[in-house]
Structure formats: C-alpha cells, structure tokens
Amino acid sequence: HLLELTSKELGLVKPYFTTEQVKRYYTYPKHTLWLIYTDSRFKTPDSLNDFPNLKQHLDRFSQVITSDNKPYGLHRAREEKFFKGEKIIVQRKCVEHPSFSYADFDTYVSATFYVIKSDSINHKYLLGLLNSKLIEFWLKKKGKMQGDNFQLDKEPLLDIPIHKPTEIKQNLIITLIDQILTLKKDNQESDTTILEQQIDNLVYKLYD
Length: 208
What we know:
This protein is α+β, with helices and mostly antiparallel strands. It has helices at about 5-10, 50-60, 125-130, 135-140, 155-160, 165-185, 195-205; strands at about 15, 25, 35, 85-90, 95, 100-105, 115, 145, 150.
C-alpha cells in the first residue's frame, strides 16, 4: 500500500534494515522496508497534526501499538546520529561467528543490533579487528554464549581490547577490508576466506 506523503512527512520516513541486508562485513543498501521515525516528541495525540497522512496511517494500528510513547512515538527511539553516515552494525545474536557489518550510508535498525561509531579510530580497520579470529576467541571466553552461538551484549563489546597501531599497520588491514567489501558488494556469496585469513594473521601480529 503506497502512502501519498508530503515532503514534510517524507522527512520522517527512514530506510529500515534487517538481517536480510546486514551481513557479516557488508551491509547491502537495497532495502524494501521503511520506518516512520517518530521520537518521544510524538507521544501526544495531537503531535502528528502537521503530518495528516502519517497520522491517518498510524491510526489504523492504534489498537496494537504498545510503545511507551504511543500513540505515535517509537518505543525508546535512539538518537538519529547513530543511524547516519559511516558505522559498524553489530548483530546481537550471531550463529557460529560474531557478525560485524560496515555501512557508510543512513541505516536505521532495530534493537536487535548495536551500532558502533568512532571519531578516534578508522571504521574499516576496526571492522577487520572485530571480525578477526582473535576477537572471536576473546568474545567466546569473555562474552556470553548460548550454546555455540554468540550473544554480543553491550558489556563484552565495550570490554574488547582495541589495539590502535600506526597508520601504516592499520592501512594493511584497511586495504584487505576494501577488497572484501568490493567482492561482497558485487556478489553476496563471494568467498573471501583467503583475505580474512590474511587479516587474521595481521591481527595476531598486532597482539603479539
């Protein structure tokens, strides 16, 4: 069902991503879902009066909306800055291996993901580090497991020992990550095992 929205209303409609697009290493920009991003400012009955088409649309679901900010506000909306621009998206429950994904475009996700943004370290270098065998081993021992599956909660993620080497050493990993991202972008099923092994070896050396 297509909604006829004004330009002002379109400003509240954001691209919504799930595990269909957020894969290990690469987040695919093509998506089919959209999110009406209304924060806690939209919790009063008259808050959407200037957005009549969105209001009419949400009113159809008033009986099933359970948000703390109902009738129109999202439940505990996160700050939008986390969804914009370059970031690493973490799948909180991962089968077999931790899954950290790179995105450099606006990517709105649910609470089944964490979002990592940093002003102090290169995101691509960090991606290589976080997806490495060494950090997988660390998370298996220090994090929370559900059988063979990883549960990447906030505390173990914040406790990961992040080594920040020289720019030259970071660039060795960044170059390999760029190759992985290019291959994944062209073909989701691309086998990047050899490149990942090269990153693992570099990470082992970084941590001696």
